[in-house]
Amino acid sequence: MNPAPAAAVPRLHPKARLQRDEVRGRDVLLYPEGLVTLNPTGAEILGLCDGVRSVADIVAALEQRYGASGLEQDVMSFLDGLGAKGLVIYGR
Amino acid sequence: MDAKPLWLLAELTYKCPLQCPYCSNPLDFAGSRFKHELTTEEWSRVFREAQALGVLQLGLSGGEPLLRPDLESLVATAQQLGLYTSLITSAHRLTQDRLAALKRAGLDHVQISVQAADAELSDRIAGTRAYRDKLAAYHFAKELGFPLTVNVVLHRENLHQVEALIRLAESLGAERIELANTQFYGWAFHNRDALMPTKAQLDAAWQVVLRERARLGSRLEIVWVLPDYHEQFPKPCMGGWGRAYMTVTPAGEVWPCQAAGGITTLTFENVRDRSLEWIWHQSDAFNRFRGEAWMPEPCRSCARRTVDFGGCRCQAFLVAGDAALTDPVCSLAPHRHVIDAAVTQVERAAAARVEPTALTYRAAPASRALAAKG
User: How large is the ipTM?
Assistant: First the structure.
């Protein structure tokens, strides 16, 4: 699967749900017969995947929030990983 | 050790309009042990306790869960608790209105079984006319926007249809198809010689799976549940005993897996007497095969013990006569010869074109008759 371009608009596949796992103090992505454990950054990226923001918008939002730069590769590889599982899809 | 459960399988009832001869329900499902089903309030408490214990995934199964008139209410409770809820159903007599009501209640995912790719064979295996309802229900599920899993139990009679089954799931717009080779417990163990495929059948089906996976990519997830009698090493059953998974039966017994109730050397607790938390952490049944201390040789000194956890306790009990032995499927197990003999007998019979023995269909009268025989 090719990596998504920066202009692509990622969103969660409808089968997946972002959920707080209170018992273990973490966020998880739940889907049919499975789950992915998220670190705080991953959960934040997915929180920004609203079907409106592009990958570039999400990177910019995170870079602004943390006063950082060069986050594009990290965000893209995270989204590509979930895209390969069919949990993140592209398009408005 | 993070011994908190992630999965709860709620077997809401053992009543079912289908009679599949490989049913995973206990052979004595019609007996007094399972008769007094939990009430709506009791199930709701079970779900609350499960969530507090760490459960994130809930399967509503049976028997046929649609036979519970309070299913919508149970789904709503699960939804409020944040559980990801799957309905595991035969879809018999499922209407679009009922599925829409379940959607409104917060159901996340629908898994509908089919017994074969065509109506004639599917209905013959199900022991009832069920195929038409299933096809209708697949369409309802997609129209309502549910993620959809098509589930098929594979055996000698339908393995040749793997390609047609995958194409069916594709045409329905399903997200997943679960091709579950029969695991020999319960009714399937009773019917083992008639259900077990030949190695040649399995190899041909597996080639189809590989080809179709390459063709479909992430469009359709094809899950292939291994036929473990034909494997060299055992499956990591349930990801280990009492590590992530539990089943609650219709009358409230709590088991480490769907088949564990058949291990007669264990005593199982009931949610009517104890909290789920106590049962998970304190009960003898859940602690007996946790970790590695219980393991015999060859598991104890084997590098694979952290991979397969000694395999399946139910299989050790059924085939080797002792739940504390190495899974006899393992090529290193002292009882592997029993598995080999069963496989060889099937191969010989197939080569000689001997008709397999008649299947015993899963039904209440057969269940009572088998229970009476002991």
Answer: 0.91
